[in-house]
Write a structure and sequence with these properties.
By secondary structure, the chain is an alpha/beta fold. About 25% of the residues lie in helices and about 35% in strands. The chain has a 4-stranded mixed sheet with strand order 1-4-3-2, with helices on one face. Strand 2 and strand 3 form a beta hairpin. The radius of gyration is 16 Å and the shape is globular.
Amino acid sequence: MSSPETGTESPRAFVPAKDFALSKRFYDALGFTKTLDGDEIAIYKIGVGEFLLQPFYVAEHANNFMMQLMVDDLDAWWKRIEILNLPKRFGVRPPKPPAKQPWGLRVGYIWDPSGVLWHVAQRRKNAPAD
């Protein structure tokens, strides 16, 4: 059986939003680029990655939903996150500062307004899997 791949495939996650407008403001503040802004879906892009924000919310789903953002300079990202004061502006859990994890990556954690956990991780130099 032949493969249907064309080389242009790009998987995108559907991220839940309890308060769609608040979540859009949150991702705008973080610096994601909104490439589509509709009533039922918003598409956000950062670097080469994208996700679809949807006005769909089930607590059990959102509280177990995780995304990873790989960055070249975690310290610069973390300064931005601290300046944004996300808990005060968006009512989210306080971010967990970067720390080296047992699997080798340095990771900081932030939660969006719906409880989605973002792993903001530093790429390792010369590590092809990062």
